[in-house]
Amino acid sequence: MDLATEILLYVSSAVIIHILVFYFVMVTKKKGRNIKDKHVVVTGGSSGIGLWIAVTCAKQGAHVTLVARNVQLLEKALKVVEQHRQDASQRLSFKSIDLTKSYDEVAKSLEEVEEQNGPIYMLVNCAGMAICGVFEEITPEDAQFLMDVNYKTAYNCTRYVLPKMKHARDGIIVITGSQASLLGIYGYGPYAAAKFALRGMAETIAMEASHLGVSVTLALPADTDTPGFENEEKTKPEETKIISGSGGLHKPEEVAKKIVSDALNENFFSILGAESWVVTLLCSGMAPWGGFLFTVLQAFALIPLRIISYFVRGQFTSIVRKCAAQKKLRQEVKEKKSN
């Protein structure tokens, strides 16, 4: 067999394997859990992905409680969710809670939520935001804020529901990370640190609680057209916009629908789109993603992807260097004009 034939066979095999892996991740269906008449709590539910997750759950007949801080936004969000009510018996409500407060304060508020709408069957941790910038330019106060609003909020809520779900031997926990939970990107320093923490928490809880009937899903949405993304864009360095902009912008309703579907199907990762799938495959490590056959397929798919990732990383480095050169040139021009 000549070299050209060998290469052709290898490339053909790689393509087939990638199609099979993508099929396993994106297409295959299994009988999922049912949330009809069960209580779903969505943090960060006043807008964006959280709001559309609440809408998706309401469409499936769940009792839904929206949790956020801003009462006015919560009132508006509840009106949107009400439009998707399936029957008069559904309990749709909101609760204003500052989830960055102490655990005891958050637990007390969640107890009140359960008294009103029943035990929490599904918790969707969707509260969070990003502040972008070069690592040393983000203030210590902002870095702490990012850890509080992204990690501490999820920790407080999950710590409250987890022992109850273990005792009931039933329940679903969704932790919303992002692609920044998988790899560090220029301009995302403290934000990525908080999102990496969420991944560690999700993997730990999955190992501790899956045998007790508690399903854990780590959602990894790419850039999504939400109010939070609009605010994020205001602080993004030029390098970050170029690097992260290649994946396009997803609609929040599509992302929400995928997250709920993956959670009900007990998938550990929830991803949408080919680019997110590739990044997740490259960075999944020992995460509980799929069975033995799927793991074997991943192993074969990783060979060419790991090589491709080397050149992608090189492209990222090239972007950073090019932007640095342009900044230096602009600074020199500015100094000449001022002299």
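Second entry:
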Amino acid sequence: MHVFLYEWITGGGLIGEPGPLPPSLLQEGTAMARALAADFAKLPHCRVSLLRDVRLDTLAYPGCDVIDVQSIGEWHEEFDRLAGAADWSLAVAPEFDQILERTTQQIAAAGGRTLNAPQEFTALAANKQLTAERWQHAGVPTPRGVILAEGETSLPIDFTYPAVLKPVDGAGSQDVCLVASHRDEPPPYAWARRLEEFRPGRPASVAALCNEAIVTMLPACTQRLSNDSRLAYLGGALMAEPALAERASLLARRALAALPPARGFVGVDLVLGSDANGDDDVVIEVNPRVTTSYVGLRQAIDQNLAEALLHAVTGEPVKITIRNPHVEFAADGATWVNRR
């Protein structure tokens, strides 16, 4: 079996852009690419190929074929060649600017088969406002939000504050900020943003392995966010409290059921409120791709997570069992065990 693993920022997605690569996206992208490459490389008779931005020549993927790219033309040539030759391709790319959607379309155009979610799911999930409207229509709890037009910096008076302002198609905590009132002056942004109610509680995420018929939930995780107004993603841990983990998993399953059928690895972000019955719990957004939680989940379960992903997509049975419930992880891919 031949797998083409493409991670956008490490794989040359910005090869035509001068200057340093965005630090937070590079950190999380590197962590996911390394973890996925290692897991696929462990599978019997599996050849793994990756593209690598020539500026990252020290980034190593043991046991994998690595092709350095140094121009846009070379990137297109090698991407199409590998996508067309591989048995499966997996793209890890941000949703903004339709990058993920266009990448999976390019895999298909090259004659490849993707482990990613279908276009309908990806396109909807990439738009946080449309996704929230879909959930509201289906009765899935999610914060109320409104759209701020491109370049708009004035906040509406008739809205509930504090609130979170984020790109409508954002990823990786980019350009997210917490605003206290309509008098705040957020930095200008050239594209549309969603202003949504801030919901206090415990940030959480639940990933799932999906095909069109079956959704297998992975262990629920807590999220660590920065305590400033940026709400930057710092990492997470497996959720230690069984009751909270069940609430998170059930709500994540409801959120996915209200959307078009998914495929592959997807992640659902939530906030669990103070009500013990879950009446304050809300879904925040869905990520139609592998998320950084992969680096922790792979260390916490008995199974090879990349193999489980393949089985889910191809309709084979998937069973997930927890080996170590005390795993914690950081956005840079570091993992450790906390037995407190």
